[in-house]
User: Which sequence fits this backbone?
């Protein structure tokens, strides 16, 4: 019995040690279910990276292993992560769409000697969960805060916030209210709606009654956002000249063909627009669309994944394929590069991406709805992060 | 509902229980040695198994329909998690006990609501209960972490000796022992006069009432016991995962657990365990093979099972067994 | 006053949309005693057909609506013949398991065929934009949904209570062997009823698509809503379903307006209160 135990442990340990030639990266993301498109975008970003930079770093070949986690489900996340580390012997963990899923994986990183590169989950506190977490996406605080400046610059002094009643919604509300107040604006009301709201007419009535000049909104992308924007137009708020403001999750490009006309003129702040004009982005879009088949499906998680692979490649290079999580993370602290979204760098203090946040307007260009970039807020950190 | 029968072999009381326990231990040891990379997954299966067993107690044995049992599981998970994250109660055994108590209390409260209805209305009441619990957990995010999940749970080593490590061995063996103990106790429970009374209530509540037995009180008691079992499952998942999310209080989890129970077969405890094991293993394997389209195949499996094994997998096993014995006797 | 009227209008419109989407399920659960959790999946198929017809083929909304209903009714025939028929009279749990399995399959297939993105149904100009009703404006498609809901309610009531088919259906439900003995071909009656219920699901899916947009998870997202409406109203009762939709619509709308942060608390508390007082639903027949 004891012997068997030792053998098992030894086998498990061996699986965790680096191989000289194949480096496995475990990617956990939503490949089925309601957010399946975001999971596809993870894969599109990874495939785009391989298409442009190849699958090898030095003499090490990268192999990606995918695991499906369709919803926020920490129990399943912990199980999949453990299986990837112990069973598949992955040397890097990546992906993670929802915050609780990332939180559930974080506690085992140090013991497993595995860094984790987050492609999406956008709550500020995640980076505090383990020193081995690096994030290449954004935080809701980071994308929402500049909107307060935008609102003030456009002469808006009274705003109402309307958000879905869940973590990211509350983050967005807090970020905007704080920054808007600091810039001399007044938030007349803060409305939180249940996640299951389908009829937004009563909310629109409240917005009307509040007398606000602008609405700052946050809802999960998809059916909720569609319903909200349709109601916004149908209830005459758009015609009344109320300005709709939001972080860019709401107008992700894959939803724009549907949201299109109702969202026209809406202002959003975000870290990435597919329409961003740079040689890096044009190459990225071509490669990612190639893999997706349908270019209309391309959305922001793809760029998080693409940059995540850039970071992982640097880690592999720095450690020369050895499994040394601390050294790998150390090697990318302060790393700077030009991402498809623009210049970015990794803040050595909290391992989160410092990046440009763009003000965009939903507009129709050559028959296609896009997020048209108007203004840049350069080198934005994460205002929501608090040192542990 | 047709009257589900237990496997003849397993009817034989105490001896049968010992044999079953031995088989379960053997399976646990085999899993441990041959699939060491899946221990976290097995732990998760066992946590869900406890939830499914809890549903079997009220639905299979007592005839109370529910699509909201995750409320009890989630109560256990959150109670154990909050005790650890907010009050520094890190002893895993203590966390489990807190989960059991919370589950039982939640069971008691929700039974008062759910027993107001019958059939469809009972199902809807149970759904309303789990939705309310979820809303509350989302609302009090200062305590529960809301949709970001409750993190910061770090259970101390079990009995001060075994750490909850990367390989998940400690949580695995803890889960196995909990399952064995629960299974053994529940076997005794369903054979006790109380258990027989519950089964009589399922078959004909009117007659039981006419005989002067307290129908309502018995149902409430069984619901509280079921809550304790579900709460134990939830607390186990909090200890093993170290994060509690809103998914543990969802209609989806409740419905999936009922699906597992019916898949395995109701009212014999084995069905609950086999159903959850098979369902989760199948789902896991399919999702690994094809992350994009596994749902279709899982759906097809369900339809096929209901079509060809009306009394679940254990019912099918029993039919095969009887046929085999019948064949031998000829 | 303005506010109360306004809430009243929104509540009525929302309630009627709920009614159109759920009434088909009330028919299956009440009259055919079948717990068809795949109801939302059929509504979703209807929505997809209409979306494809209006967007890709450029059909007029009216034709697309008819095509969606017809397609689902035709699809219902083999499904009833080879699958559902085997579960008439089976335990509720088995019906639930089978229909959840079916829902999973339909979701998977929808995801594969149509992709995971949202789909919209193109409305004709007459149904777009607001309509002025004096003190405020209401989206035209909500008025359309309300009218369709009322027509469906009247039509169904006539069909069940006033036609020979309705008599046969009620007889077949209450006592199948006796009805069979009287020369009613219960199998055909059931097949037609099932097909009608699925057609209603598709109708609801298309008419309600402005509020409940079409996407692969539709069938799971709204399963609870459908069950709640049917149970609060009393399965099989058209008046009950109507009353339930209006009451629940009012609770939800008022809650969203006055205290959105507690919107769902009021909704589920109302459900518990109503069902606790009327265990068979508002107008359900006692069992």
Assistant:
């Amino acid at each position: 019995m004891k012997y068997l135990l030792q053998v098992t442990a030894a086998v498990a340990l061996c699986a965790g040690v680096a191989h000289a030639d194949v480096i496995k990266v475990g990617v956990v993301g939503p490949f089925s279910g309601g957010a399946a498109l975001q999971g596809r975008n993870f894969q599109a970003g990874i495939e785009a990276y391989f298409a442009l930079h190849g699958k090898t770093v030095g003499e090490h070949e990268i192999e990606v292993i995918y695991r499906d986690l369709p919803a926020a489900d920490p129990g399943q996340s912990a199980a999949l992560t453990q299986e990837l580390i112990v069973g598949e012997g992955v040397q890097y963990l990546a992906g993670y769409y929802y915050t609780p899923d990332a939180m559930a994986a974080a506690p085992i990183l140090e013991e497993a000697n595995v860094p984790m590169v987050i492609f999406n989950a956008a709550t500020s506190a995640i980076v505090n969960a383990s020193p081995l977490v690096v994030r290449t996406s954004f935080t809701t605080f980071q994308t929402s805060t500049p909107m307060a400046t935008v609102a003030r610059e456009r002469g808006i002094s009274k705003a109402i916030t309307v958000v879905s009643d869940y973590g990211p919604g509350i983050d967005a509300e807090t970020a905007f209210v704080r920054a808007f107040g600091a810039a001399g604006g007044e938030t007349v009301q803060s409305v939180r709606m249940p996640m299951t709201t389908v009829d937004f007419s009563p909310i629109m009535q409240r917005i009307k009654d509040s007398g606000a000049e602008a609405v700052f909104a946050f809802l999960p992308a998809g059916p909720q956002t569609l319903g909200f924007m349709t109601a916004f137009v149908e209830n005459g708020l758009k015609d009344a000249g109320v300005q709709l403001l939001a972080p860019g999750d709401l107008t992700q490009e894959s939803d724009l063909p549907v949201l299109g006309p109702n969202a026209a003129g809406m202002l959003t702040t975000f870290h990435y627009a597919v329409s961003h004009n740079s040689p890096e982005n044009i190459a990225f879009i071509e490669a990612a669309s190639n893999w997706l088949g349908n270019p209309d499906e391309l959305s922001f998680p793809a760029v998080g994944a693409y940059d995540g692979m850039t970071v992982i490649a640097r880690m592999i290079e720095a450690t020369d394929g050895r499994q040394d999580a601390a050294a790998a993370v150390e090697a990318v602290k302060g790393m700077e590069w030009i991402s498809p979204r623009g210049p970015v760098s990794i803040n050595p203090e909290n391992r989160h991406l410092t990046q440009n946040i763009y003000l965009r307007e939903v507009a129709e260009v050559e028959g296609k709805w896009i997020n048209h970039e108007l203004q840049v807020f350069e080198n934005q950190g994460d205002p929501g992060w608090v040192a542990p | 509902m047709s009257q589900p029968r237990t496997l003849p072999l397993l009817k034989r009381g105490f001896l049968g229980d010992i044999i079953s326990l031995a088989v379960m231990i053997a399976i646990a040891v085999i899993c441990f040695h041959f699939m060491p990379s899946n221990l976290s997954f097995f732990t998760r299966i066992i946590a869900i198994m406890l939830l499914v067993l809890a549903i079997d107690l009220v639905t299979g044995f007592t005839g109370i329909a529910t699509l909201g049992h995750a409320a009890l599981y989630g109560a256990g998970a959150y109670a154990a998690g909050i005790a650890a994250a907010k009050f520094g109660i890190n002893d895993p055994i203590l966390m489990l006990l807190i989960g059991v108590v919370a589950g039982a209390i939640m069971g008691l409260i929700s039974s008062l609501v759910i027993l107001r209805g019958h059939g469809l209305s009972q199902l809807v009441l149970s759904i309303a209960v789990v939705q309310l619990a979820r809303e509350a957990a989302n609302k009090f995010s200062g305590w529960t972490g809301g949709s970001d999940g409750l993190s910061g749970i770090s259970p101390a080593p079990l009995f001060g000796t075994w750490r909850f490590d990367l390989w998940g061995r400690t949580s695995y063996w803890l889960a196995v022992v909990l399952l064995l103990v629960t299974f053994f106790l529940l076997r005794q429970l369903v054979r006790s006069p109380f258990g027989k009374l519950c089964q009589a209530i399922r078959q004909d509540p009117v007659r039981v009432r006419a005989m002067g037995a307290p129908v309502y009180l018995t149902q409430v008691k069984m619901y509280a016991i079921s809550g304790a079992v579900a709460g134990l499952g939830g607390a186990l998942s909090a200890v093993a995962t170290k994060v509690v999310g809103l998914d543990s209080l969802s209609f989806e989890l409740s419905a999936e657990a009922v699906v597992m129970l019916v898949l395995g077969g109701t009212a014999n405890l084995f069905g609950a365990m086999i159903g959850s094991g098979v369902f989760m293993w199948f789902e896991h394997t399919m999702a690994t093979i094809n992350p994009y389209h596994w749902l279709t195949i899982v759906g097809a499996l369900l339809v096929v099972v209901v079509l060809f094994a009306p009394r679940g997998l254990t019912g099918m096993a029993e039919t095969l067994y009887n046929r085999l014995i019948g064949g031998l006797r000829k | 006053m303005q506010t109360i009227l306004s809430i009243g209008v929104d509540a009525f419109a929302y309630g009627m949309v709920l009614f159109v989407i759920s009434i088909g399920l009330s028919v299956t659960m009440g009259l055919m005693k079948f717990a068809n959790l795949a109801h939302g999946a059929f509504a979703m198929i209807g929505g997809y057909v209409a979306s494809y017809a209006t967007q890709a083929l450029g059909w007029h909304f009216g034709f697309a609506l008819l095509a969606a209903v017809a397609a689902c009714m035709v699809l219902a025939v083999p499904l009833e013949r080879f699958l559902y028929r085997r579960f008439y009279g089976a335990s509720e749990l088995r019906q639930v398991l089978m229909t959840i399995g079916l829902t999973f399959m339909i979701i998977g297939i929808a995801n594969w065929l149509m992709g995971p993105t949202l789909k919209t149904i193109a409305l004709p100009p007459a149904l777009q934009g607001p309509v002025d009703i004096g003190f405020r404006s209401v989206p035209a498609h909500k008025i359309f949904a309300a009218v369709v809901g009322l027509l469906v309610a009247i039509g169904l009531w006539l069909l069940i209570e006033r036609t020979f088919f309705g008599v046969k259906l009620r007889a077949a439900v209450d006592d199948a062997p006796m009805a069979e003995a009287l020369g009613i071909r219960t199998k055909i009656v059931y097949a037609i009823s099932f097909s009608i219920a699925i057609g209603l699901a598709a109708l609801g899916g298309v008419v309600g698509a402005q509020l409940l947009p079409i996407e692969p998870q539709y069938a799971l997202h709204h399963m609870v809503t459908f069950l709640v409406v049917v149970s609060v109203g009393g399965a099989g009762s058209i008046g009950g379903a109507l009353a339930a939709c209006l009451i629940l619509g009012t609770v939800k709308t008022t809650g969203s307006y006055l205290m959105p942060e507690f919107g769902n608390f009021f909704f589920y508390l109302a459900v518990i209160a109503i069902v606790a007082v009327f265990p068979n639903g508002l107008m359900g027949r006692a069992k």
User: Anything to note?
Assistant: Residues 13-264 of chain B form one domain. The interface with chain A takes residues 32-33, 36-41, 43-44, 47, 135, 138-139, 141, 145-149, 151, 154, 165-168, 237, 240-248, 252, 287-288, 291-295 of chain B (CB under 8 Å). The radius of gyration of chain B is 20 Å. Chain B has a mean pLDDT of 88.
